[in-house]
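Late entry, evening session. Most of the bench is empty. Finally got around to the prediction I had been postponing all week. Sequence below, unchanged from the version circulated by S.P.
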Amino acid sequence: MKQFEVIYSYFNNSLFNNELPRQEFIFDINKKFPLRWDKSNIIIGAEFLSLNAYEFFISIIHEMIHIKSHQAGLDDLGINQYHKKNFLKMALNLGFFVIKHKSQGWSIISPISPRNATNCIAVKSPNVNRNCSLLDVLSNVNYNVQEFKNQVKDLHDAIIKNPPSKTFFLKYQCQCPDPHNSIRSGRRPNGAGMEHPDAMCKTCGSDYLCVSDLPD
């Protein structure tokens, strides 16, 4: 992950006065997001592979804003990844346009004025000079392009070799006469078929039992 660290260091120096702590990048193919800081490391999820290099730059700066907010003792993130005004203010200060998502708050940052953004309900614009400075930083990222591509390919190969596990929801049914009441759950019966979700039908009083064919 050397080039990931090089890029992080470049933005740390260029945008954050080299004040952020060093981060370790950890790849987890079972995570369905591109990047996320977990208060100790930056986790790279399987969706990272859908990003081009420029989108990766924006994503890593996004996580660095969270790191900076945490360092400053600011609460910038609520439940369900809702981005609060502290995140908005810091992103604007860096020169980003900030887009308010209908369910995740001020979560989308863009170095250029957005057009036709999906699920967008508001946009805040940065100071022009700060935006120009940001664009200059983004156009001069100093990293080894080929090595970065090789590292991305290694991650891609790792996913092909060990694809992320899928979540299957099974159908559980009570003992009522037809039509039965039913629920869906990610819980799996054990080998004897006895384990079930901790739920009981209020009509017949029976536990819900799995009636789905179990995936391999």
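Two things to note before I forget:
Helices lie at 2-15, 53-71, 85-94, 128-138, 145-161.
The chain has two domains: 2-161, 166-216.
Will write this up properly tomorrow.
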